[in-house]
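dude i think i finally got it to work??
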Amino acid sequence: MGNGESSLFSSALEVGAVVAGAVLILRALSLGSQSEELEPDHDFPRVSTGARYESDSSPVATRGRRNINISQTSMIKIMSYNVWSNEDVEVKVRMAAIGNLVQKHSPDIILFQEVTPRIYKLFQSSSWWQLYKHSSVSPEEAAQGQYFCMLLSKVRVKKFISIPFKNPPSEKGLFLAVIEIGLNKPIIVATSHLKSPNPPKMHSEERVSQAKTALGFLQEFPNVIFGGDMNWDENIDGAFPLHGVWKDAWPELKGRKNGWTFDTKSNPMLQCSYPLQKRLDRFICKLEDCSMKNVEMIGKKAIPGIFCYNKGKVLPVLPSDHYGLILTISLDA
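look at this
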């Protein structure tokens, strides 16, 4: 068996394992109680209850904080944002600006990528943090990481699930929450930060494998919102591996309007960077009982009065090197 065939075979085995894990979890969700803790073997994802990571340990007062109950006619708003792990560029001011965006748009669920232990602490000490009762990452876990993805939710979380990617072995993976919103079927909200295309190795094979692994797992659930930094480039990765009823929210709702969330032309903070205009961040959805209503880009304005220096130039500072996305869905009656 050649190297290419071996890689494809390994990828197929990985997808098969996580699909089997998804089936196991789906059955458990239909049979078990909210307090149930699953301990699958090492071939399957790690599952924990949403209560395990309730963010009550925040130093911000949490008195009176409650889960939000969403009726069958309500909207759900989800934010996805790569917050940029570079702590040398006005990290306190940038995270405060992202917090202002959280307060302005008031998402029900937040998907963050590139959170560092320091950024976690900055968020945790912010006034908006107390609104999000459920966190996929505890303070103890955050302190041990380099940078990581995390989910925050105002809505009741039944389970958090994490699936480490095996190709390549790394801290990257698929992270998701099983959301309770009154439907008989669960809604899965997931995030990931796929392998970065760092020259000279663009890592397309690994990125495609990770995308297929993620979608192979998520395919087993009826209602899925998968948002994050996909690092996707159609020129080297091909089309995102969508099949059947999967939809890419931006082209579905915005048509041909460019959705470049990493744009060295429109983002003045990046004007000294290698020219790049790509739709790296996306929302991918598979919805049987919900409908996509709107998607918008956020974080495109410079922070007033704040500047950084790069290659002898004085540059404005934005909340991140990426723009964020907000997806709004409705629950079908």
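The chain has a mean pLDDT of 85.
im so relieved honestly
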